User: Fold Ribosomal RNA small subunit methyltransferase E from Celeribacter marinus.
Amino acid sequence: MDKAKIRLYVDQPLAQGQTVPLTKEQSHYLFGVMRQDNGAVVALFNGVDGEFLAEVTKANKKNGEMACRAKTRDLLMPPDVWLMFAPIKKARTDFIVEKAAEMGARRIVPVNTEFTNAERIRQDRLQAHALEAAEQCGGTYVPEVTDLQKLDRVLADWDETRHIMFCDEALVGAAQVLGDVAADKWAILIGPEGGFSEAERARLHELPFAHAVSLGPRILRADTAAVAALTIWQQHLGDWS
Amino acid sequence: MDKAKIRLYVDQPLAQGQTVPLTKEQSHYLFGVMRQDNGAVVALFNGVDGEFLAEVTKANKKNGEMACRAKTRDLLMPPDVWLMFAPIKKARTDFIVEKAAEMGARRIVPVNTEFTNAERIRQDRLQAHALEAAEQCGGTYVPEVTDLQKLDRVLADWDETRHIMFCDEALVGAAQVLGDVAADKWAILIGPEGGFSEAERARLHELPFAHAVSLGPRILRADTAAVAALTIWQQHLGDWS
Assistant:
C-alpha cells in the first residue's frame, strides 16, 4: 500500500479492519476537491487510537466510506502541559493555536487578562486550526481549545497540583529559573502584548505553584514567546529530552 | 520627556545632541500618517549606537528633522549566530525573518535546497520585515538578510570555523546532541518543508563542523522549527543563559 499523501482527522473509532464512515464535509473534500477514488489510500487518526492507513471503499461525494488497513503510528500523547495565552490579533492568535498543537501542548486555554485586546474568540475556528495543524504535521493528538475565560477566575479555581510557568516580561534579561520543580501537571502562561498588569504580576508571583521565567534579553511578541516557552518546557520537563 | 510610543530605525549616526534628518518616507509617516508635531518624542535606533529618545524639531511632511536627547538603551548585539532557512510560502517566509530578528539572529541567510519550493525571494521586502520586527520589539540591532543562495554553493565556500547546527527531520524523537562544542561562530540551518534530500543530509552529516540536532518527537513546520532551534541555541550557547 502506498504512503498516504492526505491525512484526515475522523471522529470515529479506528482499528484494523474497521469501516469508517466519512462526514459530508470529508466526503466532499476527498472525492470532490481532491478527486480521490476507490482504492485511494489516506492516513486517518482520531486523537486516541494512533494513525491508520485506510483505503477508500465508497467514493461517494456525500457519504463516503473507508476501511482501516495497517496501523502506521501509535498515539503520541503530549505531556500534561497546557498553553494559556491572551488572544491578540486574529492572525497571531491562529498562529499561537497552530504552534501549540505542533509543539505538543495537551490543552489550549485562551485567557482574558487586564490588558487583553480581544473581547471574544471563535472557539470553533481555533479548534479547527488545532486539528488542521495535527493533520498537516503528522500529529496523532488534537489538543482541546477551551472557550475564552478570565485569568482571575481561572486562577481562583486553579488545581494547585498543576504548576504554572509564566513568562514575565519584567524579567527580560534575567536568568532562567525554572529549577527542579517536581510536578507532573503544568501550564505555560503567556501574557498579552501589553504585558501583565501590576496586580496580575503581583498575584502570579505570590502563587506558590507559579514560576516566573525569562525568555532572554529581547522583548518577544506573544506568538514568538509561546513557541520559545514551549521549547524550554519540552526540553526541561517534557518529551524532548 | 515622555516615553516614546513610536520607534524608528534611521540610517544616521546617533549621539546626544545630534540632529537627525528624516527621509521623505519617515517624514510622511511621522507627520502625515501619525500626525506628530514639534516637540513630539520618538525613539530612534540605527543598529549601531543603541537607542535614543529624540524630539521633533521640524515637523515637515517631506523633510522633517529630529534632535537626539537622552540615550535610553545600549546596543544589544546578538551573539554571532546566523539563521539559514529554505524559503517556503510567502507568509511563512516573512514570519521566519520576523522571528529570527526578534530572537536575536545576527544574519539571516535564505538558501535554496533540492526540495525548496521558492525560486526567488524579494530580499528588500524581507530586509524591511527584519527592520520592522526590530522597531516593534524594542530591538536595537537589525540583522542583515542576504540574497537567496544555493545551499551546496554556500557549503562549498564555508568558513570552517563557523559551526552549523542543523535540524534533521530524520532525527525526530532522538535525544538532543548539541554537546559541548567550543565555537564562537554558529549558523542554524532549517530544512525545507519536504526535508533535506538524501544527498544533502549525507553531506551535512559528513561535515566536521556540522552538528545534527533533534527538535523533539513531533514533526515541526519550518517556521516553528526556526523559533524552537533559535531558543535551544540561545539557551545553550547564546545570551539567554
Observations:
- Residues 222-236 of chain A form the longest helix (15 residues).
